[in-house]
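Supplementary notes for students who missed Thursday's class. We covered one full example, reproduced here. Read the sequence, then the structure, then the short commentary at the end.
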Amino acid sequence: MMDRPRRLRRTPALRAMTQEVQLHPSQFIYPLFVHEREDVTPIATMPGVSRHSVASAVEQAREALSLGIPSVILFGIPDHKDALGTQAYAEEGVIQRATRAIKAQVPGVTVIADTCLCEYTDHGHCGPLCEVPGLSGADAWTVDNDASLTLLAQTAVSQAQAGADVVAPSAMMDGQVAAIRAALDEAGFAHIPVMSYAVKYASAYYGPFRDAAGSAPSVGHRATYQMNPAGGHREALREARLDAEQGADTLMVKPALAYLDVLSLLRREFDLPVVAYNVSGEYALVKAAAQAGYMDERRTVLETLTGMRRAGADAIITYHALDAARWLQEEQVRL
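Structure (token representation):
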């Protein structure tokens, strides 16, 4: 007797009934860029994505929730930047104001605050800079790790005070999760989870984000603190294990698409939720190909996000969130 797997692929209902991997809007986290202006400014390198005012960010959060997307992650773009990124932890910083507005007007949305300094420093790095003795050129400057911990902890507490439901440290400083966890607990925010960017690579896929946030480094590079793309599985496991031991509540892999093996590895090795970040460059590549007529955007996006789920992601940060949620709703209607 011939085996006939095709029997279960014959109709949409049969395919849906037998699929192992489910993709649903509740698994999406929608990223929002918020600036201090009153306008909405399209980002040229990320078609369909804009820098939002606080009021517009509220409406975007409302739209996301109406589509079944329960969470947003906020990235702030201040008018004033300085060497210490002081607007990251200012009481009236743009993310603090946006968080308060969203929680007041769309209380059902979970607000995740990106906890980093690169959008707020005038040099574009994730903490205060220091010189590296004996080196020259791009390698002569790096981030002062331990000085950054104090500022990152201060930023996380400020975000929690503004009403953030989750803080997400992304600076890749050694010990940042422990410092933030201790500061949150001491300030009375023991209930606030830490979503750690545990495995974050020095990737070329961040280019459009740096354009959107104005966070391209003016000196040096991030390879001294973000992970080596060729570092391998041992480095990824070490970084994730350190964050888990320091009190991280979830672990993130960033970028996702080129590192699905790492995502799958974390899913096997840890019992914490794993988040995939479908980053700006991955988004821009699909958009560019779709606009040129080379690919079907809808099918490509849903296939990519399904691949991240199949690799083990419990949640996905994606700029495609609103469109993907609409497409999934339409597929349900057709069934």
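Commentary. The chain has a mean pLDDT of 95. The chain has eleven helices and twelve strands. If anything here is unclear, bring it to office hours.
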